[in-house]
Design a protein that fits this description.
The complex is a heterodimer of chains A (255) and B (313). Chain A is mainly α. Chain A contains 10 helices and 2 strands; from the N terminus they run ααββαααααααα. Helices cover 76% and strands 2% of the residues of chain A. A two-stranded antiparallel sheet of chain A has the order 1-2. Chain A is globular. Chain B is built from 10 helices and 14 strands. Chain B starts with a strand and ends in a 5-residue tail after the last helix. Classes of the chains: A mainly alpha (255), B alpha/beta (313). Chains A and B meet through α1 and α4 of A and α2 and α3 of B.
Chain lengths: 255, 313
């Protein structure tokens, strides 16, 4: 028996069902948050901002807002997805089943990534209520969102295996991802920063993600899209390598 | 009889140096119920965990259905089921979805008929759409069994299946396990209820401090290690054992008021010697006012072995 496709599919569907169980909260929260950002930054403040790089400010912040929700929700979903079975003990079933690293990742990470794509669609639909925008490279935007979602779902998976308590699960998204995303050009262009902050900002990896998505949306970005793509692919590769080591050694999974 | 699971020199030493399993050799035969007995912390759950992929052994080899569990684990695990000791399942899931998920996880196509059959056999069909959290403790335990049976395992591990359940449910669980055996499922169960092993097991293994002290047919073990104890309450105290009692193994207790016989081998020899003893006492004119005869149970044997802490035979 080689790859267990049914096993992977079962995990995937179950994780999506878990998402649907809390669909009201899962959908309403990002709609509310996005709406609030648009009211505050788009309508109230944005009216005084003018264009940035030829893009209306309210439209300019869409890729950043999308990335803000995408990174946080994907990481949280994936980390909870694997942490909860560890916490409740239900992971016994996964470990005793004929499923390996590939099936587990396709199931958990795939489901977390799909949830994120659903959220991205909801955010974009909500944004449409507040601002008229046009996506310059829709296919690239979709693929890039999928890539980022997959990378951060893998990252969340690692987080969920590393964490030995609920506090640790919350620390990374709250103390690192959200601040870095805020400082990563969500609401402004890096070029608007005074020296040396514009250079310092380039050490923030989230800058490249926001910039990459902004290029896909409007054809304008702080850094070249290929740099953003390379950094995202590199991050994804590192996460895959870490997960491969985790499964080989059984770290925090098998005693 | 065909061997379906073979453990050779299986060991598990934790980084701190604790030896949870120490050179365990065990062969499980197709179709049997094997009871693994041991006190808390003896290594029962670690042994199950090692076979089922929850624990990484540090020594030895494991083969199931001819597959090496280290290299060909997918093929082997497909045929093994596990009912854990802890009540571990997604409590918000409906019963039928939880059981269907388990089947899929093991790579089998959905089979509504099979799921219905499993749920009906465990009296869960009426509760199939209920969230697991709404079920009673006994029902929840049955759900775990149903999940383990969903992929039709040929070898089923039951880790303390009746721990913490009431007497009625325990008996019901025994019936379920008996029914599984009837269908040809090989069962390995861990328990510290000796009565459970005595009731159901074909063979018994006794484990303590990670070492398998003894493995034998239950009946053989009882015959080899079983003892008869008879206590005669004497009408008058004796100062010493009367020579008329010959070689019968007796001793005095309670200041010479009680004559105690300990002997036999679990095959009836002890009872015969007690009968001879009663005749010898009457012939010697020693009167007694009561006899209390006790055949040693598996529990007595278990305690004896654990206290001795070594392989008994």
């Amino acid at each position: 028996m080689s790859f267990n496709a049914r096993g992977a599919w079962s995990i995937f569907i179950r994780e999506l069902m878990r998402f649907l169980r809390t669909a009201f909260q899962s959908v309403l929260a990002p709609v509310m948050t996005t709406s609030l950002y648009f009211i505050v930054f788009g309508a109230a403040i944005g009216g005084r901002m003018g264009d940035i790089g030829g893009v209306d400010y309210a439209a300019f912040i869409i890729p950043g807002l999308l990335m803000l929700t995408l990174l946080g929700e994907t990481t949280s979903n994936a980390s909870f997805g694997i942490y909860m079975p560890r916490f409740t003990g239900t992971i016994y079933e996964l470990l005793s089943a004929p499923v390996g690293v590939a099936e587990t990742l396709i199931g958990f990470v795939g489901a977390a990534a799909v949830k994120s794509l659903i959220l991205a669609a909801i955010i974009l639909a909500t944004a449409r209520l507040f601002v008229d925008y046009h996506i310059a490279h829709p296919i690239i935007a979709l693929l890039y969102i999928m890539l980022v979602a997959a990378a951060f779902a893998l990252f969340g998976f690692i987080l969920g295996i590393w964490a030995d308590g609920f506090e640790k699960l919350g620390i990374i998204p709250m103390l690192f991802l959200t601040p870095l995303t805020f400082l990563g050009g969500t609401f402004y262009s890096i070029a608007m920063l005074p020296k040396p902050w514009d250079t310092i900002a380039l050490f923030n990896p989230i800058v490249y993600l926001v910039s990459g998505l902004r290029w896909a949306f409007y054809g304008t970005a702080d850094v070249h899209f290929t740099v953003s793509l390379a950094i995202t692919l590199g991050f994804l590769a590192v996460c895959v390598a870490v997960i491969a080591v985790i499964f080989r050694t059984g770290w925090r999974l098998r005693t | 009889m065909e061997t379906i699971l073979e453990l050779a020199g299986l060991g598990k030493t934790y980084p701190g140096g604790l030896k949870a399993l120490d050179g365990v050799d065990l062969a499980i035969r197709k179709g049997e119920i094997f009871a693994l007995l041991g006190p808390n912390g003896a290594g029962k759950t670690t042994l199950i965990g090692a076979v089922c992929g929850l624990v990484r052994p540090t020594a030895g080899t494991m083969r199931a259905f001819g597959h090496d569990l280290a290299t060909d684990w997918r093929a082997a695990r497909r045929r093994i089921g596990l009912v854990p000791q802890e009540m571990a399942t997604d409590m918000f899931e409906p019963v039928i979805r939880a059981v269907t998920y388990s089947r899929g996880l093991f790579g089998l196509a959905p089979d509504a008929g099979r799921i219905e059959q499993v749920l009906r056999s465990l009296s869960l069909w009426e509760k199939r759409n209920d969230q697991i959290r709404t079920l009673s403790g006994g029902m929840k335990r049955r759900v775990l069994i149903a999940k383990a049976l969903a992929h039709e395992p040929e070898l089923l591990f039951l880790d303390e299946p009746t721990a913490g359940v009431d007497v009625e449910l325990r008996k019901d669980m025994w019936r379920q396990i008996g029914a599984l055996r009837e269908r040809g499922t090989t069962i390995i169960l861990t328990t510290h209820y000796i009565e459970e092993a005595e009731e159901m097991a074909d063979r018994v293994g006794i484990i303590d401090k990670g070492r398998l002290l003894m493995v034998d047919e239950k009946a053989e073990m009882m015959a080899r290690l079983g003892r008869t104890e008879a206590r005669f309450t004497l009408a008058a105290s004796l100062g010493r054992i009367p020579p008329a009692l010959g070689d019968i193994p007796v001793e005095l207790d309670n200041g010479g008021r009680v004559l105690v016989y300990r002997g036999g081998d679990g095959t009836g020899k002890g009872k015969a010697e007690v009968a001879d003893l009663t005749k010898a006492l009457i012939a010697a004119g020693i009167d007694y006012t009561g006899i209390d005869v006790h055949e040693s149970s598996l529990e007595d044997i278990f305690v004896q072995l654990i206290e001795r802490g070594e392989v008994a035979a």
